[in-house]
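=== Given protein ===
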Amino acid sequence: MLGRLLAENGPALALYAANWTAAAEDCVQEALVELAGLPRLPDSPVAWLYARVRQRALNASRAARRRTGHESAAWRDRLIATTSDPAEALDLVSALAELSPDDRELVTLRFYSDLTYDEIAAAVGSSKSAVHRRTENALSQLRTRLEAPCDPKLIQSTTNSQNSTARR
């Protein structure tokens, strides 16, 4: 019976769950497992499945929002801890938050983890030239956003990296 319910309703249930979450198939699977564990079948198993899939999808959506909020707060707090001027740190956090997640990752790896462009390329699965180009583009966006010269530490770090790369 579960196989039949899945075959007849699975794609529609997943589409329904996708209204709220990217984990739609997981919601459908969990609802089917829950249905299988019931001591007695509901009067309308299909309607019951839709209700459970909806509830699971909403829960997954809330959990994802909470997780994203916690991760953003942790990232922001760690970044602020790395600077001596809290006001400057808040401006930087705001500017970094406007970058795409991929560009923010590159800036973090380069300037807060102090990885070389070769190491970053290996970590993110990209070429060194692409990483360098994207990092420079992200820095340009940060400079524009902050409307001030970049932190001398960042400029010095970039210069040192370019010098050491040229020597290699």
